[in-house]
Every structure is written in C-alpha cells, then in structure tokens.
Amino acid sequence: MILMYRNQWATIATPYKTYGISFDMRTLEGRQGNFSLGTGLGVYRDVAGDNDLGITNAVLSLSGIIKLDQKQYLTVGAQGGFEQRSIDANKQEWDSQYDGSGHNPVYSSEEEVSYNQGFGAGDINAGIAWMYSESKTTLRSNDNFSVRAGIVYQHIMGQELKYGAGLEKENLYRKLSFHGASNLAVKNSNYSFKPSFIYQRQGPNQEILLGTLVRYTLGFDSKYTGLLQKSAVSIGIHTRVGDAVIPSIGYELSHWKILFSYDSNFSKLRSASNRVGGFELTLTFLNPSPFASGKGHVARFN
Prior knowledge:
The protein has two helices and 16 strands. It has one domain: monomeric porin ompg (Porin), CATH 2.40.160.40. A hairpin with a 3-residue loop joins strand 13 and strand 14. The radius of gyration is 23 Å and the shape is globular. It has 302 residues and is an all-beta fold.
C-alpha cells in the first residue's frame, strides 16, 4: 500500500499538486505455487496551475504472476478505470478583462465557450514484467541480488479531450514506458545499491529518469521476543535527463518505508524557477516485511 504527495514549481505559479494512493496484493495462489493472481486499486488527483487544471483517475488492476523457476517470475497485467478532467474557468484571465491597470473580473471575458464543463472517459493500460531474484541472509549480511524489467502501454483507448462546448476534440496520446530496477548487495556487508531507470514516450514528448539509491541495513530482528525490528536507511540521487537532479533520503522499519525526494531544476526553466522544482513524499506498507528471510516470494518484490 502506498500513499504519495507531490508539490512542484511553487516559485513559478500556483504549485502543481498531486495526491495518490494505491494498493495491491496476491490472491488465489495455486497449490503448486506456480501461478497466482494479483489485484489492485489505484487513485490519484492532480491539480495544476492558476486555473486548477484537474485530473482524477481511478483504476482497478488484474495480473497473472507466473513462476518460471525458483528464481524467475513473469507478470502480465491490465488496468481499467475512469478518468475525470476539469478546469476552473472562474479563475481564467483574458485580455478583454484588463481595465488599464490590471485584471478586473467584473469585465466580461467575451468568450463564447464555457470552459467549466468537466468531462470523463474510460482508460485502459497494460503491461508485462520479468523478475529475477536470489537471496542469502547470514548473521553478518544480506547478500541479495534481484533485477526486474518491464514495458507499460497506457491510454490504449486514446480518449478524447474537450474542455468546452464548441471546441474541437483532441485525442490523448498513447504512452509507452520502459522501466528497470535492481538490488545489488555488497558481499558480506550491510550495504546495497538500488539502481533504476524509466524511459517514457508520449506523442512528441519523452522523459528519461535514472539513478541509484545506496541502502544500509541497521541492526537485526529479535527472533524470539520481537522487541527489536530490523531497519534501513537509504540515500540516493537521480536525474530527469535535461531537466532536474533529484536527491532523496528514506528510512525503513519492518513493514514501513518513508521516502522524501526533491527536484532541483537546471533546465532553461531555471530562469523562472530559480532552480526550485518540487518535493515528493511517499509512505509505503509492505507485507510480508522485506526484511524477512528464507522466503523466495518476498525478495522478488523488493
């Protein structure tokens, strides 16, 4: 289960704000453990700019998890849901409302279109992912290795966008994403590296995000009393190529993980942003605990 909040570009205009929650779990696992279903729910709300350009998206997920061997898994999944879009026309400012000294909302916008008409459409996404993991836990270290990679195809329906009566409709570009991540433990130590990357393409736009976390495991679980719980700290740096550098810090305790990251903008936008990008806070709950040992199904989702 993941809770997320993001606040971006406060120095340029009204901050862009995003809120999100998602939950997923395995169900209906076969007797042999070679196949199981994954189900999930995700909801997010995004509000951008002075005119409150808003998107509310809710999707249900279903996936099939196939055990290829003792170390490899393949997942094929799909999402279906609904997306609602809106804009607050009462906050728009037009040239016709300029009274000689500034904006005067009493003046008519002289626009024939009403932009206050929200609209919604169905949304379908699909993806496939491969996972490999192996782990060895000793009293001195966690020598884990895992790698995963996948492809996601979003907005398959190419829904129409139209913010007011009388306007021409535009189709939302379909979006293709490639992602990968790994856990590389330093042998016989409590350190590990967690590199990751995402490449996204949507119409004429593209984004490349890559970097790594360095994770250090603290302490050990008390096997019998349960009074002590293993924890870990992570620090890292990522970059959104051509746009921002993103330092981050996180803390894990048993089932819980909290991560804070901050964008520092270095693109041409920095003349307006003063290198201020946005901060993001995520809170994650995992069960079983990622610190558990001797369970192959745990490592593959870390």
